[in-house]
Amino acid sequence: MLNKLFFICLVSVSLLSTLNARTRAESSNAAQKEEKVENLRYNKTIRTFMAQDKRIKNLVYNAYVYIAFPSIGKGGLIFGGAYGEGRAYRRGMWIGDVTMSQYTVGLQVGGQSYSEIIFFKTEHAFNSFKKSGLISGTQASLIGGTSGVSGNFDLTSDTLVFTSGNGGLMLEASTGAQNFTYVSREH
User: Fold this and answer.
1) Is 162 contained in some domain?
2) Is the pTM here over 0.90, yes or no?
């Protein structure tokens, strides 16, 4: 009787271990597929920018670091806000995650979605960005539908920003600030 009980316990533990390993493998496969889809989304965003403006191709290969945001959602009615998640790359390698929050006030109505790439030409410019994480400025735009790459401007002589409208309808003449949070993947 004791041998049968021991055998049943051994078979049960073996079955539970097998099921647990299978569940972890399925979960790992799902995570890998999700990561692959995200990587493709970022790669497509970067390639699209490069195809629309030849200067960007040079910047992708020569900038110290660039940050790609595939989609930033923005909306406002007098007070506005925007949010997006991006990735920082150095020489094509993913080195960190970045979130952007924007707060604005002024004449604004509507909503839009856009992509953005920020290029840091020097290590000093990128380190300053990581330290402060805040960019302020005034903007004016009238967005209707979708458009090509635009809005390229110097934040400093070593930092360039390019945006590309994904869609929406927005009228804006506002001032505000973008707050960035950088989390490194490097150890």
Assistant:
1) yes
2) no
